[in-house]
Amino acid sequence: MENLEHAENTDAEDWLSEVRYEEMPSVDLRTDQAHPARVYDYLLGGKTNFPVDRAVGDRILTEWPGSRAATNAARTVMHRMTRRLAEVHGIRQFLDVGTGIPIAPNLHEVVQAVDPACRVVYVDNDPIVLAHSRALLTSAPEGRTAYVEGDIREPEKFLADPAVAATLDFTQPIALTLINLVHFLSDEAAHPPVRKLLDALPSGSFLALTAGTTDSIPDRVAIGSKRYSEAGIENHLRTREGVERFFAGLELDDPGVVLINRWHPELGEGPQLGDHEVAAYAGLARKP
Question: What does pTM read for this prediction?
Answer without folding.
Answer: 0.89
